[in-house]
Amino acid sequence: MQGDNAALASAFHARIKAAEDEEGQSIHEILIAAGSEEEQQKRLSEIDERCQQTILAIREQCNNECMESHQAARLEKRTLFQQWTSSRQTRISSWERTARNTKDLQLELMPAIINARRTNVDAGMAINATQSSCCVCTEEIEGTGPSSSSGSDIKKRGCFSPCMHATTCLDCAIQIWDRSRTCPNCRGTLTSKPEALHL
Fold first, then answer.
1. Which residue among 32, 45, 98, 163 is least crowded, i.e. fewest CB within 10 A of its CB?
2. DSSP calls for 73-118
3. What is the DSSP letter of 163?
4. What is the pTM of this model?
5. How far apart, in whole angstroms, are the C-alpha atoms of residue 178 and residue 69?
6. What does the alpha-carbon distance between residue 119 and residue 125 come to, in Å, rounded to a whole number?
């Protein structure tokens, strides 16, 4: 922008200089031409008036060019800002769409994940569910064999995720989740709230 203003100012001064040179040439021609002093003075007045009009016209033209340059610069800035705003909105929409798709995928896969946790014994993942008592409170918990008791005083067995250890009752497992979120067997970090293991 400053470069454009400097160029316009330089062009303005060049035009003024050309008008002044033209005026000086005309005056020189009048002075060396034959004629009375009155006639020469009249022609000098005409040249001076014409030169002033030329300078005013040049100044007005330069002002108009400056205004057009400023308007063009403002229009360019407005266009660039609109392009940036549009691009930003497109990126935001893309991020929101990706987040929605990710959430939808998580909701879609959640039943399969839960089912896999409950059936991962068949998939070959070892669940430590052989203890008949909770390793924390020592209360009896649901066993793994058909001879296990299943009375109302038998506590449900809790299962940790992702390690799938199941050596505590569900109540103690939930307390561990609330306090430390660390498996008491492998000391691994738990990623979700323990669930009852149905065996």
1. 32
2. HHHHHHHHHHHHHHHHHHHHHHHHHHHHHHHHHHHHHHHHHHHHHH
3. T
4. 0.36
5. 68
6. 9
**Using CA atoms, how far apart are residues 105 and 82, in angstroms rounded to an integer?**
34
For the chain, domain boundaries: 2-112, 120-199
Please determine, looking at this structure, whether the domain spanning 120-199 carries the CATH number 3.30.40.10: yes
Which two structure tokens, joined as six digits, stand for 163? 């390690």
User: Which residues lie across from 157 on neighbouring strands?
Assistant: 169
Nearest to 197 by CA among 167, 168, 156: 156
Q: Could you give the CA distance from residue 75 to residue 73 in angstroms, rounded to a whole number? A: 5
pLDDT digits (tens, 9 = 90+) for 112-128: 765 665 555 444 344 55
**Residue for token pair 């062009």:** 11
How far CA 40 is from CA of 26, 31, 79, 126, in Å, comes to: 11, 7, 58, 119
Beta pairing partners, 169: 157
pLDDT for res 125: 44
- Residues 119 and 111: their CA atoms lie apart, in Å, by 12
